[in-house]
Design brief:
Helix content: 40-55%
Shape: elongated
Number of helices: 36
Strand content: 5-15%
């Protein structure tokens, strides 16, 4: 009797070399399509909603005309009751299943419980951990593991302190979770789905449906699903059709997959081959209570099938590791991978280019279809962008996370700007966001760019008040535009400056700010609607979560939730091309299937860690291992290899480092041996597409404009640039290309020097160099600086200014007086106006002039001065002696650098490039001005009044600045001459 019952089970499989959806549709039409309503009375159970569409399309292709389709039900859909209505959850059910708790409500409640169990966890981290906890809880429910078993586990070796804390927190949350569900009158969604599946399995056993029931492509080994499939297989008109079940694998290999019972002595389990593509199917068969020998091959074919030998080659290539020694005895025909080629290129850019070319090539043949399957969304976006060059739109059915769409990035930009108190970088990211003021974009961007220019350099004081002061000092368009924009940001500052507070208030501020800045554009299109729905649901359920949230964590909290929301584009791409993720690719078919991104860590991806249950705990509970996902990925890969033509692609490196070929790639390559076909022609086409043909490195630039249009005015600080790097002088003075400081830049030496010079100037002009008033001036200057810079720079600055104050006080006793500071002067020399501004000018005790230059860093070396560079002091002395400074006359007899840098354990040092007697190989003091004059006259005659080319990097050892290196294309010629 048992054997007769086993024969009545209707179990089938469609091998990998056949297109699953098309073969299924053809077989069902042949069996039940003889009468008009034969198909319509049937039910087809499929794994996902995407599978429903694939099978629907297959029915349309197979029919060739209109037909009434069977009812398609996605039993992998978490909200199965809403998907199938009265079929699974009839209103008149004798024992109604309680409603499920909303996913966001569960997320918030679990986050609150996690935070109560460990108050040190902030709100954003609690929400993230709640997501992982919910997934772990779902696995327990799906695998029908009672949470109470956690307390029954006894391990031979204790867990580490980290896992002990995680397990304790997990147990505390699980203890409290049933009470939360009871209070809401709800159950878990996974629990509800399991109950609905069990009920329909029971009903079908007692009262079979009038039409056929076909479970197609369902590979989940969840016990509830296994019971449904067992029930379907036993129906008179029931069928279970699995994809890619290997009927040819010998029993030794099949049994080697596992799972294995615990050892009767040690209690340990042998590790199952969870990474094998057949493991989850074997587990499903065991839970269904059926044998592999009971399955038959589905007798239907399609136009997009590969040769039958492909299935055998796939099974051989992906055999368990301990059986790969059998490859040695394989015959050449058993290694045949005809129709499969491989493309290995240097970079992901080349890979995307080649894939796009192959997709484009497929369109050249009428009716031919092609699809890219890859888990690498960056590669998918690149391929879609390449296809757009030919005006070919390709839909990426996997979509993209909400956090990467314009509405998502706008909400995150608002949260970041508020959390960082409108620091320049997040503020400008918000003001320049493409959705902000999209109707008046040109005028808005003009003002935003003015504010951008004004915020270049070190960060101003925090908050809107700090920006008011900074931009008010900048004046012009930046100040006037900012006055109009500031009211739009007041609400953000008020909300984010209020300390910890309930989450709904912050979300309301976020929504209002987005509407004020972007209007309806923030909530338009599919991505805008997804953002609005997420905010609305989160705001509705926020009261269930942590009672108070730190505003600084809002951006991280939102990003965690947005990353889990996939926004898929509306269908409208080319009908013969497609880009799929791994989940979306299941049951899909195409004439040309491209499996892209075949690198380890991408395909298969790295197993996601479980922060709650240690691997040993998962094993003891009977939960799937962390690497079980690799087995599903391997099955996806095997099914993808079943197209008539398959192209495998990988790049030898990614954006950061060299890559390792996927284990799937390496196995196929090892199996094929000399039969491995490389798509070298496609790689050459991809490289040729962007090959400019003949090219040569740029020569060293030497612009030589006519002398009549060359600058006839130069400052003493520009002379070094003119002589060491004439091209940089040309770019700055003639092309008027001025480098911009970065936004929110560190305090550079130039900036620190400017601020210190300003302090010393005001101190000399308004305080008459009173020693006790210099430090308060420095403290006032630092009061508006960034706290980090203030903390790092203040001690050394205060010591340096104290040194300056003491030195000037000592000078007065020596008969040396400060007579002027920060005064500009000019003289005409060699047909050029030489201009300069001294930092300080002293009258020495002997009546000569002392030229002083303040340095926040080290002073120039004597060697540089003797080489004809760093002659600023000498040129200022020349202007003074020629009466270029109004009201000042005399001979320059002292040239000093007052450096604030650290020297021998103290801050502050006076040095000079000259010496009255020329001691220590220095220039004689009385010759310095004339030497400076001679060098300047020579330089002016060559480049300002003469025809000498402005050669790039003429003296690179004295041209350390790199502002114009890219403009001169330095890397193309430097070192080649």
């Amino acid at each position: 009797m048992a054997e007769a019952a086993a024969r009545r089970l209707n179990l089938y499989t469609i091998p990998p070399h056949r297109a699953f959806a098309d073969a299924l549709a053809a077989g069902l039409i042949r069996r039940f399509g003889g009468e008009p309503t034969g198909l319509a009375r049937g039910i087809v159970l499929v794994p996902t909603n995407r599978s429903k569409r694939a099978i629907t399309d297959a029915f349309v292709r197979a029919s060739g005309s209109g037909l009434l389709l069977p009812r398609l039900v996605a039993i992998g859909d978490p909200e199965i009751d809403e998907a199938v209505g009265p079929l699974f959850d009839p209103a008149d059910a004798e024992e109604p299943v309680p409603p499920a708790v909303a996913p966001m409500a569960r997320r918030m409640i679990l986050a609150r419980l996690v935070q109560e169990a460990d108050p040190a966890i902030d709100s954003a981290e609690a929400v993230r951990l709640a997501g992982d906890l919910a997934r772990t809880l779902d696995q327990l429910l799906v695998e029908e593991v009672a949470p109470g078993r956690l307390r029954e586990i006894s391990l031979f070796e204790p867990l580490s302190a980290h896992w002990e804390r995680a397990l304790t927190t997990f147990a505390v949350v699980l203890d409290r979770w049933p009470g939360e569900l009871a209070r809401l009158g709800r159950i878990d969604l996974a629990d509800r789905r399991g109950r609905l599946l069990d009920r329909v399995a029971k009903v079908w056993r007692e009262r079979p449906p009038a039409g056929f029931v076909c479970a197609a492509g369902v590979t989940s080994a969840a016990p509830a699903i296994a019971r449904v499939l067992r029930s379907v297989a036993g129906l008179a008109q029931g069928m279970v059709v699995l994809p890619g079940l290997d009927l040819a694998m010998d029993e030794e290999g099949w049994e080697a997959l596992g799972p294995f019972p615990p050892d009767p002595v040690t209690g340990r389990r042998r590790q199952a081959e969870e990474t094998h593509p057949q493991y989850h199917l074997k587990l499903l068969l065991e839970r269904m209570g059926v044998r592999r020998g009971e399955f038959r091959t589905w007798q239907a074919t399609s136009e997009v099938d590969a040769p039958p030998a492909r299935s055998r080659a796939i099974a051989t290539a992906l055999a368990p590791a301990e059986l790969t020694h059998r490859w040695i005895a394989l015959k050449p025909g058993e290694r045949n991978l005809g129709g499969v080629s491989a493309l290995e290129v240097a970079t992901p850019a080349e890979e995307a280019q080649a894939i796009a070319l192959r997709l484009r090539e497929a369109l050249e043949m009428p009716g031919r279809t092609a699809a890219l399957v890859t888990p690498d969304r960056a590669l998918a976006r690149r391929v879609a962008a390449h296809c757009a060059r030919w005006n070919i739109a390709v839909d990426d059915s996997a979509g993209q996370p909400l956090s990467q769409t314009p509405p998502g990035t706008l909400l995150l930009a608002i949260a970041e700007a508020g959390a960082q108190r409108f620091a320049p970088v997040p503020l400008l990211a918000l003001l320049k966001h493409p959705l902000v003021r999209s109707e008046e974009r040109a005028a808005w961007l003009e003002g935003a760019r003015a504010v951008d220019r004004a915020l270049r350099g070190p960060r101003p004081a925090a908050g809107l008040d700090g920006l008011d002061r900074h931009l008010g000092e900048a004046g012009g368009l930046a100040a006037s535009w900012w006055a109009e924009v500031r009211p739009l940001l007041d609400g953000i500052e008020t909300a984010f400056g209020g300390g910890v507070q309930p989450l709904p208030g912050l979300l309301g501020c976020l929504r209002e700010a987005a509407t004020a800045l972007a209007g309806d554009a923030a909530w338009a299109r599919a991505e805008g609607r997804a953002a609005a729905e997420l905010l609305a649901e989160l705001e509705e359920r926020a009261a269930l979560g942590p009672p108070l949230v730190e505003p600084a964590t809002l951006a991280a909290l939102l990003r965690t939730l947005m990353d889990e929301v996939a926004v898929r584009p509306p269908q409208g791409g080319h009908p013969r091309l497609a880009i799929y993720g791994l989940l979306e690719a299941r049951l899909q078919a195409a004439d040309v299937m491209i499996l892209g991104g075949l690198n380890e860590g991408v395909w298969p991806g790295r197993p996601a860690p479980d922060p709650w249950l240690a691997p040993r705990i998962r094993s003891e509970l009977g939960l799937p291992g962390l690497e079980a996902r690799i087995g599903l990925t391997a099955h996806d890969f095997a099914m993808g290899l079943g197209a008539p033509e398959v192209l495998l692609t990988r790049a030898r490196r990614d954006a950061k480092s060299p890559t390792i070929a996927s284990r799937f790639w390496l196995r196929l390559q090892a199996l094929a041996g000399e039969g491995w076909v490389a798509a070298d022609a496609l790689a050459r086409w991809a490289r040729s597409l962007d090959d400019p043909g003949m090219f040569a490195p740029s020569p060293r630039p030497e612009p030589a404009p006519p002398a009549a249009i060359r600058p006839k005015r130069i400052s003493v600080t520009e002379v070094d640039r003119l002589k060491a790097d004439p091209f940089a002088f040309y770019a700055r003075r003639m092309l008027r290309l001025m480098p911009l400081e970065p936004v929110d830049a560190d305090a550079t030496a130039a900036w620190r020097g400017t601020e210190v010079h300003a302090v010393l100037r005001v101190w000399a002009e308004e305080d008459d160099c009173a020693p006790e008033k210099l430090r308060p001036r420095a403290e006032a200057m630092l009061a508006g600086a960034h706290p980090l810079m203030r903390a790092l720079w203040a001690p050394r600055l205060y010591e340096a200014v104290d040194w300056i104050a003491s030195r000037i006080a000592a000078m007065a006793e020596e008969g040396r007086q400060v007579i002027a500071v920060e005064r500009q002067g000019a003289i005409d020399i060699a047909g050029v106006e030489l201009r300069g501004t001294f930092d300080r000018l002293d009258r020495m005790a002997d009546g000569t002039l002392g030229i002083v230059d303040y340095k926040t860093g080290k002073a120039p070396s004597v060697a540089a001065v003797k080489a004809g560079f760093s002659l600023q002091l000498g040129l200022l002395g020349l202007i003074a002696e020629e009466r270029g400074f109004e009201g000042i006359a005399g001979r320059a007899g002292c040239f000093e650098y007052w450096s604030l840098a650290k020297d021998r354990g103290a801050f502050g040092k006076i040095s000079s490039p000259v010496d009255p007697t020329g001691a220590r190989d220095k220039i004689r003091t009385d010759e310095f001005v004339e030497i400076a004059r001679g060098h300047f006259v020579e330089a002016a005659g060559r480049w300002l009044t003469g025809e000498e080319p402005f050669t790039a990097k003429l003296r690179p050892e004295f041209a350390p600045f790199a502002d114009y290196d890219q403009l001169m294309r330095r890397d193309e010629w430097y070192g080649r001459e």
